[in-house]
Every structure is written in structure tokens, then in C-alpha cells.
Amino acid sequence: MTQVAERAGDDTRAALNILEDFAAEMARQAQMHRAIVNILDDAAGERVLLEHERTRLRLSEQVVTNMLEDFADDKNQLVQAQRAMLNLLEDFAATQARADTALVLRETVERLREAQKVAEAANAELDAFSYSAAHDLRAPLRVIDGYSQALSEDFGEHLEVEGRAYLANIRASVRSMTDLIEGLLTLARVTRGSLRLQPVDLSVLARQVVDRLRYLSPERHVNVVMPDGIVAIADRRLILVVLDNLLENAWKFTANRAVANIEFGRRVVDDRMTYFVRDDGAGFEMEFVDKLFGVFQRLHAASEFEGTGIGLATVKRIVRRHGGNIWAEGAVGRGATFSFTIGEEVVA
Amino acid sequence: MNENPILLVEDNAHEEALTIRALKRANIANEVIVARDGVEALEHLFGRSGTVYFPDEGPALILLDLKIPKLGGLEVLRRIRDDEALKLVPLVVLTSSAQEADLIESYRRGANSYIRKPTDFDQFSVAIRELGKYWLVLNEPPPALPSGKRS
Predict the structure, then answer these.
(1) A14-41, pLDDT tens digit by residue?
(2) CB < 8 Å from A in window 67-126 of B
(3) CB-CB contact of A281 with A254 (8 Å)
(4) Contacts A129 to B, Cβ<8 Å
(5) CA atoms within 13 A on the CB side of B67
(6) Residues A266/A243, Cβ–Cβ less than 8 Å
(7) How far is CA B137 from CA B8, B18, B114, in A?
């Protein structure tokens, strides 16, 4: 590229030198012409005598003028030729640049293909892992749960209260482990496959989640504020996982409130549409806010609030896959607000 | 009530025991023939194991796990549906897999039902009880197809 530009520069300079030589020659000719005219004027007295000669000279003046004009034409032609040459050089440079760019592009595409192959292999491995996790990890759990159940059914009368409590503990742990496996599978799933973006009514999805939560714990008093018609362009299946997790968290962490308040809505933050889930529950220390979205990171003891520590990591991955961001604000005992954006949704 | 034996294709002995226990507790008295892998399942069905476990019309019900050794559940399913005599036997896929591909492929190959085994044993017991009740008591089985076609 640089060499080409230099070559073009050299050629241009050579052409300019030639033009300068032409110009100097033309100046000399004009001077000579003026000198001749002066001499002729001086010999005015001999005008008649010299009329013929003068006419001849005028003729030659004309010839000189013509010659000069011709020079000028030549000069123009040269300038034009120079321009044409420059254009050619520019075209050549551009072609060269295109060729270079094409080469870079080919290499990039090649590298991308390689990366894609690696990614596909990794995905296939992940699929195999998910499959095994789903089957091989769940089967022993079912067996543990099954025999615990069989033991309490068939031999329950031989067990003390304490023994039956032990069996109940085993079964509770099986449930936690099941949740954990399900959570990991969801986490693995959300990073794969392409997003199916379409307008999704988040209000409807959020209401479904809340209805389910109310059904599961009818004893709770929770005020839920949620406007209708919050529509966003998103992958329906994945955004449901987001709302599911955030609303379930809000529900869970307000369990100690006699009357809890949960709000789902949207507002504009820095010209971007921002969706939020807010609660007035247990909250968290802002100091640990970075830990919220890490896998297996928990800010509460399992005995205080149940959970796998996978949900928010999954939520973050989904939001990031949509090109958005998620952040949290909260204070201990004063609730938490989780806000997220989806893609490059800009408010006009 | 269809009193022919049930074929249970399941490689995990504990799961097998718990499934049989759940069937008994649901008062399903049918004999349960167990196959531990895909090849054994086909041998039982097509009589190659030297013992004829089922009458010509086949088992009353086939409970088929998908992830089984030697020959996968989906391949076993295909071979069963390719056979004239076994084409119509009620077959329930009973598996841990919740993979969409498994679901689609199972139905495509002619499974009558697809049950994802719950980890929770109470739910599992309920599933087994309902399954037995539906397929062995409520459901009217297909008539026996001309015999001797099993190959």
C-alpha cells in the first residue's frame, strides 16, 4: 500500500518537472517575441519600407502566438494526461487496497470458520453434558428419593419420630439437588441456540408468573403493581426465564413481610428503556452487589432463604445475549430493585 | 383389563425395582418382563432369547427408557413400529430426558405417550399409577394382528 503511494508520488513529480520545463521554454519564447516587436517599433520611420517585413513579422508573431497556444494546449494535454495518470494510479491504489482488504477478509472469514467449528464442537459437548446431567444425575436422585419414600412407607412404624425426620431431610435435599440440576441445565441452555426475537408482552408473562406464585403460596399477602401492555422485542422463552427469576426472587425475599409490595414496570434511564422489578423485602448490602450475578454466589444463608445461586447468573446471561445490561440496587431490610435493558432500545 | 405382561426397558436396577414397586402399589398385577438394554428388549419381543415372553399380540404395554445400553431407545422404538404385529402395541416412553429432539423423535416414531420421570418419587408413583390405570384398564387395546409376522 505505502509502496504504491510512493510510486504514484514519484510519477507525479516527474510529470510536474516536465511541465515546468515547458513553462520556462514558453517564457523564453515570449521574451524573444517582445524584443523583436521593440526593434520593429524603433524602426518606425522605416515603416513603409519595413511594412512587408513587419507583416511577415506579425505573421511570425502570430505563428509564435499560435505556437505558444499550442504549447498551452500541450500543457493542458499534459495536465490532463497527468490527471488521467493520477486517476489511474488512484484506481490502482484502490484496487490494491481492495485486494489487500479482500485478503484480510478472507483470512478473517477463515479464522471465523475455525472459531465456529470450535464453538460447534463445544456446543455439541455441552449438549452431551446437558443430556447426561438430565439423565444420569437425576436417575440416582429418583432412586434415593424412592427408597427414602419406600422406607418410610414400608417400615415407618419401626422408626422413631427422629428417624422419620431424617428421611424427610434426605428427601428435602433431593429436592434442592433437583432444583440445582434444573438451574444448571437452564443456564447451559440459555447460552445456546439463536434468539427468536419478536414482540413479547412482558405484562402478560409477568402476570402468569405472579399468578403461579400466588397459587403456590396462597397464605402470602403481596401487593403487586404491574401496568398492562409492556411490550418488548425479545426471545419469549428466554425473557420468561428472566421475569420468572426476578419475580420469584422478589416473592422469596419479601417472605418475612406481613404485607409485601412488588412492582414490575419500565422507565427511561439515560434515554434507554429500562425494565425493573422492585420489592420491599430483605434487600442486600450494596458492598456485595457484584456477587449477585455470579454462579453459585449467594448473599443469604440457605436456612434463611432457599436458592441455588444460579438464577441471577442465568438472568444476566439472557440479558447480555439480548445486548442489554442488568444491575441491582438495594439496602438491607429496605428491598431491592433489579433493572435491565433489552438490546439497543433507545427512547426517541 | 389387558392381562398380558408389561415390558419394562430400563437399565438401572434400582429404578426398575422402584418402578415395579410403584406398579404393584397401584394394584397393577400384570407380570413385568424387564429388559436391561435395547438388544435384550428386541430379543424378548422377537423371541430370540429362546423364551417366548409374550403372546402373539405382544405385551400389554411397553415402558421404554431412551438412554439404554447397546441399542438406544429410539432405535428400539423404530424396530417395534416396523414390525407388523407390534405396530399397534401401546408404548410409553418413560425417560429422564426433556430434550425437545427426543420428544419429537419419539412421537414421530410412533410412541403413544411420553412421560418425563419426575425426580420426586411421590410424583413418579403418581405417574406410574396413572399410566397403568390408563393403558391397562381404561384404554381399549388394539385387536391382535395376524400372528406369525413377527420376524
Answers:
(1) 767 777 777 777 777 777 777 777 766 6
(2) 67, 95-99, 117-122, 124-125
(3) yes
(4) none
(5) 19
(6) no
(7) 18, 21, 18
Integer Cα distance of A243 and A224 in angstroms? 14
Q: Quick check: B41 and B93 in contact, CB under 8 A?
A: no
The more confident residue out of A344 and A138 is A138
Q: Are A57 and A78 in contact (CB under 8 A)?
A: no
What amino acid occupies position A310? I
Which triple of cell numbers denotes residue B91? 408404548
CA of A204 vs chain B CAs: smallest distance (Å): 25
Q: Which residue has the cell 441455588?
A: A308
Contact (CB<8Å) B18/A139: no
Closest to B65 (Cα-Cα) out of B8, B6, B118 = B8
Among the listed ranges A283-292, A305-314, A330-339, B128-137, which one has the minimum average pLDDT value? Answer: A305-314
Chain B: residue whose CA lies nearest to A128: B99
Q: What are the residue ranges of helices labelled H in chain A?
A: 2-42, 47-132, 138-155, 161-190, 202-216, 236-253, 311-321
Confidence (pLDDT) at A189: 75
**Report for A55-64, A271-280, B132-141: range of highest mean pLDDT:** A271-280
CA–CA distance, A343 with A273 (Å, rounded to integer): 10
Beta strands in A258-300 (DSSP E): 260-269, 272-279
pLDDT band for A314, please (50, 70, 90 cuts): confident
Q: Are strands B61-64 and A231-235 parallel, antiparallel or unpaired?
A: unpaired
Do A180 and A310 form a contact (C-beta atoms < 8 A)?
yes
- Assess: ipTM above 0.95: no
- Cross-chain CB nearest to A143 (options B14, B99, B125): B14
Torsion, Cα of A117, A123, A126, A132 (10° steps): -100
In this structure, are residues A282 and A256 in contact, taking their beta carbons and an 8 Å threshold?
A: yes
Dig out the grid coordinates for B32 from the structure.
Answer: 413385568
Average pLDDT over chain A reads 81
Distances in Å between the alpha carbon of B58 and those of A47, A95, B33, B39? 139, 75, 12, 17
DSSP A222-243: EEEE--S--EEEEEHHHHHHHH
In angstroms, rounded to a whole number, what is the distance separating the alpha carbons of residues B93 and B135?
13
- Asked if the model's pLDDT at residue A96 lies above 50, the reply is yes
Encode pLDDT of A123-164 as tens digits: 777 777 776 766 778 888 889 988 998 888 888 888 888 888
DSSP state of A156: G
Distances (CA, A) of B135 to B6, B24, B127: 11, 15, 12
Residue A8 near residue A86 (C-beta atoms within 8 A): yes
Residues of chain B neighbouring A193 (CB-CB closer than 8 A):
none
